[in-house]
Amino acid sequence: MRAVAHTDGGSRGNPGPAAAGFVLEDEAGRKLRAKAFFLGQATNNVAEYTALVRALEAARQMGVLDLTVYTDSELMVRQIQGQYKVKSGLIQPLFEQVQELRSGFASCLVVHVTRDKNTEADRLVNKALDAGEDIEESVPAQTPSPRTGKQRGACRKKLRLGVLISGGGRTLLNLLECIKRGELNAEVSVVISSLSTVAGVERARNAGLPVKVIRRKDHSDLDAFSAKLDEELAAANVDLVVQGGWLCLWKIPPRYENRVMNIHPALLPSFGGQGMWGHHVHEAVLAAGCKVSGCTVHFCTNEYDRGPIIVQRTCPVLDDDTADTLAERVFEQECLAYPEAIGFFVEGRLRVDGNRVRIKRDR
Predict the structure, then answer these.
(1) N or C terminus of the chain with fewer C-beta within 10 Å?
(2) CATH number, span 159-359
(3) Is there a contact between 34 and 20 (Cβ–Cβ < 8 Å)?
(4) What is the DSSP string of 124-136?
(5) At what angle do helices 279-287 and 323-346 cross, to 10 degrees?
(6) For residue 145, is pLDDT > 70?
């Protein structure tokens, strides 16, 4: 379940009478909950953090996995992103509570917006301040969506994944977590690494997965390398090949047409191609002055970063971003986009029409 929260906190006097509030909506913009809390005497910063804590708690109680929070407190956002240190003894426990709550979501972004884009939460806070008590507004009853109470990818046969890695295996670990939580009706049949000493190999083995190391330099040419990959994938009876940080071009056999996925840490077709991987991508995005970046899941062809696009997700590029900070924000979106794309494949909802992927939506 995806949701959006708007939070606000205010103090008349700083410190003075204070209140905190949030509005929680589903991805269609339907209001799920709207509540404000009268805090008594507190500072603006305490009120802002309290609003965020209460919003996170409410979202978790409602089963939200993917949450984006909008707040007009730039200070709080920069503290959460690690750009500013938390020095106040009053704020430190609230900051730690926020970080603990955020870890319980598959993705939880906290984004700064201007006050004019946060009017509903602001209105609730002032309503609680005027009343001197907590306020909760009634919301319309929601009709359950077709996915309510149903796990994504619920079908009889588990999809057999072959995961290709060349690095730390973070994408692999994310997919394993999604499978463990029942969000993907799949299993990892084999992990193939193009390098023998990367952390992903050990992580895959620690997870009890069969691991094969197939290095390009151990094969006479691209054809021999590709044939060995095909051999191991066939031996594992793989239904879908998932490239997760895989850096080697290989010749995809015809039987795997539109059955090999890749995730790229930018919005293709921009910032793709040979040599555009990892920090090289994020550095190029920053050098170009982009205001938005994100990730792309696509079916693979025999060219770098080409092939029909399945899913894209975006995130903001901040003025003081480095390649490292941008990479982490993009990876948060990768952790959502890849399982979503694989889930569509599991459910038979993808149709490739030329260079376009059409997704059959829920009725």
Answers:
(1) C
(2) 3.40.50.170
(3) no
(4) HHHHHHHHTS-EE
(5) 120
(6) no
Considering the candidates 112, 264, 282, 298, report the single residue annotated as catalytic.
264
Contact 205, 163 (CB under 8 A): no
Residue 328 to residues 112, 237, 317, Cα–Cα distance (Å) = 17, 34, 11
Whether 58 and 108 have beta carbons less than 8 Å apart is answered as no
Residues 271, 281 contacting (CB under 8 angstroms): yes
The helices-and-strands tally (H runs, E runs) of the chain is: 9, 15
Q: What stretch(es) of the chain map to CATH 3.30.420.10? A: 2-136
Residue 109: predicted pLDDT: 86
Give 154-167 pLDDT, tens digit per residue.
334 789 999 999 99
Distance CA 124, CA 131 (A): 11
- Helices 170-180, 323-346: inter-axial angle, 10-degree rounding: 40
CATH 3.40.50.170 in the chain: give the residue spans: 159-359
Q: What is the pLDDT of residue 97?
A: 94
For 37, the 3-state DSSP assignment is: strand
Q: Which pLDDT value is given to residue 328?
A: 92
Active site residue 6: no
Q: Look at 146 and 216; give whichever has higher pLDDT.
A: 216
Instruction: Specify whether the CB–CB gap between 166 and 248 falls below 8 A.
Output: yes
Tokens at residue 73, please? 């407190």
Cβ proximity of 184 and 346 under 8 Å: yes
| Through-space distance between the first and last CA atoms of the chain, rounded to whole angstroms | 17
Give the lowest-confidence range in 21-25, 51-55, 95-99, 304-308: 304-308
